[in-house]
Amino acid sequence: MEGLSRRDFLKTTAAVGVGAAAGMGFPAIIKAQGSAPIKVGVLHSLSGTMAISEAPIKEVVLMAIDEVNKAGGVLGRKVEAVVEDPASNWDLFAEKSKKLLLQDKVATVFGCWTSVSRKSVLPVFEKNNGLLFYPVQYEGEECSKNVIYTGATINQQATPGVDYLMSPEGGSKKKFYLLGSDYVYPRTTNKILRAYLLKVKKVPEANIAEEYTPFHHQDYQTIIGKIKSFSAAGDAAVINTINGDSNVPFFKELGNQGLTADKCPTMSYSFAEVELQTLDVKPLAGHLASWNYFMSLKNPENLKWVKAWKEWAKKAGIPDKQAVTDDPMMHAYVHVHLWAKAAQKAESTDVDKVLKAIENLQISSPVGKYKVDPENHHTWKPVFIGKIRADGQFDIVKRTPDWVRPEPWSNVTYPGRGCDWSKGGKGTFDTVGGKRVWLSEKQ
Amino acid sequence: MAFGKTVSLLAVTLGLLAILLGGLAGPGAAAPGPATPDLEGPAKRLSVPATQEAAIAALKEIPDPAVEVLLRALKDGALYRLRDRAAILGDVGTLKDLSGQPILDAAGQPAAPADGQEPVPLDERLFSVVQRALERLEIFGADAAARRSAAFKLGSSQDMTAIAVLEKALARETDPEAKPVMEEALAKLRLASPDPAARAVAAQALGRLRSEAALGQLQAALQQETDPAAKQALTGAIRSIDSFLVIRNVVGYAFNGVSLGAVLLIMSLGLAVTFGLMGIINMAHGEMLMLGSYTAYVVQEIFTSRFAAQQDYYFLVALPLSFLVAGLVGLALEGGIIRFLYGRPLETLIVTWGVGMIFQQSARLYFGDQTSVNSPTWFRGGLELMPGLILPWSRIFIVMLALVALGGLYLLLNRSYAGLRVRAVMQNRDMASCLGVSTRRIDSLTFALGTALAGVGGCALALIGTVDPEVGKTYIVDAFMVVVLGGVGKLLGAVVASFGIGISNKLLEPAISGTAAPIYAKVAILVLVIWFLQWRPTGFFPAKGRAAAEAR
């Protein structure tokens, strides 16, 4: 055996193994051995300010890819993740996506969190005909051919939240304090919500207050004081779109100043289980959030998923206390399986073929049935309203009877506007006199 | 499974206890017994769509904790039928019966729903009915806070049938905080009573309770009132609430300002020493505060895992420890880097900024981003100075701590021998050196004192703010603003500047209308500071120190 290296030895054994498998009739394995793995990109910040939210998303995407591989891969080929860290830097998002598309030639990318990061990679994907799956709720008013938006649109999160607050079980609230961080998502969401409250719900202008705080704002004393007076009669609610770390001083002040949920509930749109784990939950019990998914959902599929995630997190070195699941993680998990199923159906990883196959594609998920819209590249899913429980989970107080159709353009601010990429569709259109006028042709 | 068993045992015990208490305390409660067999019937009717509504209506009249469990399971889609009995899906995916005992399958293992078995469906129309029934059951519950909340809700419900429920609840209420809430709720409902005398009494009660919550309702009632006595009572109530609100708001704003001032003071006290006295532009000052915050976090985690019973006392350990940790790091920083850069402010600025970035990234790598410090229980909530005005204990503590730290620093610098030497070195280094003062030692100890004070500040600020790797950035600008405005080198300057900025910020903020008051208030303050420094470049209290000498 002198001169036979370890590597040669392994090669020989592998060849023998393949030969044996072929002889025994395992064509799938031959195919898998015969072709290279399919590369997919994972583009989430693992450092910088957004790491708190995006790092768990990366893990859950890797877990889903692992599941796909264990089930035989896609088209008989293994799926291989190429993980890039754009470090919460918007320009780096564009650079890294260029690298993934042109250098690694990935079949698809799972990535982005903030709207600004998505806007920054959008031209790269459109120019190179790439495919991006985006897992986070956002302000809408966008519909790219090259993006599948799995997170909630305004009508799948923000307006159902308001509807709940105005319903008898939500306390029949009549006044709304819109409070957010000063950037595009809260500003656009609140613009639409204000129009919705005024036009659809007939709430008088005087009953709506709107306020923004800078990023990393620490002192919420005055704002809590204002909210207390605003809500003294018990008929008001706060709509919270504060992002990131400012939620901590906001909720601490809220708890300490005794502004409890029974007097004035806070409905949060950027605050889920992951963020909740960083706080002392007891004073926050009863405040609300609106999402497409809550960890406390009781169905066998979700229980199975949560269990699998806890095991995965343990291996990844995430402490058990922090190994929670939330809405963007659920979307990120589901959209990996969606892509795998679409590629399988298309019998190709070609972007155009996958996009064609993914139209109207349905999948079972931790929230039940879940599908991609036949036209507008957003997804159908149910909406839940959850109430914070003392144990850091949400008690589900309201659910939509069925899944909700995604509307990238709100009917209130853009009546008649929609989006269609299915056969013959050219993206965004306005309905003029019952006819579709494509924005791309309008100029 | 041992844990699951304990939990279910606990649930059974609690259930029994509640049934016993319910049987003693209220009419309509189930008789004390080993289990609640009478719920199997309603549970069965719940699972039949035709009888679901009637079953819910019947169940909500039974003030029994098991009813709550049953209705909650129905609402959550966790109610199943197994061998013609009700079964509730637990958190671990196995089924339990109505008394909380696990249901075993043929093999003696905890049973799970069969593949494809659907839970008992809840008619969408009835979802809100169940939700409201669950809320109404809370006013008779064991938790005083939940009772207060339920009472407030019933008071705002304008549902006259709630009066009877509230009267019943008030009669058996023992909690001193819940009682006034129930009285207020009753008075609010009775304001719509057909009897004018009852309306007048209700208005008087609301005036006496200083009920801000009822103000809008009282004003609306006054518009429609025809009875002169009731009218007078309403006017009186509105006037007394209004004048109370004016006083309350003024006190509230003043406290907000003082509290922000104390936060600024505690942020900048350390910098007043390192920059003010020594003239070192320490851009890592924010990270010294961060060190204090993380010390609090680490001590808290150690207590959580080792001494859970004494959890609350972690803060008593964390506070002095953060002083030590930040002080030692300051000592190393001065000895290792800064002392080579004395007299070269630009290099100091850049180097300390870099040091700050190293601290930030190390914190991110080591602690991650999911950290926070929870206040000890005695700092939770606040002092209710007047109805509706609660001064958080954590903020009161920070005001106290800022004053104590200030006093201590003043005594140290101005009334002790060590302080004398510090001042001597800062005012005339060569002379002090000639007289045998070890200027080297004084330099490093003074710098360490400054960073140690920052550590204490960071530890205290963790009570109200965030603990994350970037937290230093949010502090550094404010800290420099205070020291520069106050006048480099004088403690009194830092005090005046902190409270000046704090109070004017908090008086401006509510006065600014529009959607970005906190942003404009901060801008206005910065403009004021710039304008002031144009007029008096050396701040409120210019002083002689090394910085002043070098500036000359």
Task: Describe this protein's structure.
Chain A is α/β, with parallel strands linked by helices. Chain A folds into 3 domains: 1-26; 27-152 and 300-382, Response regulator (Rossmann fold), CATH 3.40.50; 158-268, Rossmann fold, CATH 3.40.50. Chain A contains 14 helices and 18 strands. Chain A has a 7-stranded mixed β-sheet with strand order 7-6-8-9-10-14-15, with helices on one face. In chain A, strands 2-1-3-4-5 form a 5-stranded parallel β-sheet, with helices on both faces. In chain B, strand 1 and strand 2 form a beta hairpin. A 3-stranded antiparallel β-sheet of chain B has the order 1-2-3. A two-stranded antiparallel ribbon of chain B has the order 4-5. Chain B contains 22 helices and 5 strands. The longest helix of chain B is centred in the middle third of the chain and has 50 residues, at 228-277. Chain B is mostly helical and 552 residues long. Residues 1-37 of chain B have low confidence and may be disordered. The N and C termini of chain B lie far apart (76 Å). Chain B has helices at residues 2-25, 40-46, 49-59, 65-76, 127-137, 144-155, 162-172, 178-190, 196-208, 215-224, 228-277, 285-306, 314-336, 345-367, 393-415, 417-427, 429-434, 439-461, 471-486, 491-511, 517-535, 546-551; strands spanning 79-82, 85-89, 95-96, 382-386, 389-392. Chain B folds into 3 domains: 2-131, no CATH class; 143-226; 250-551, no CATH class. Chain B is flat. The chains are: A alpha/beta (443), B mainly alpha (552). Chains A and B meet through helix 3, strand 7, helix 8, helix 9 and helix 11 of A and helix 5, helix 6, helix 10, helix 11 and helix 15 of B.
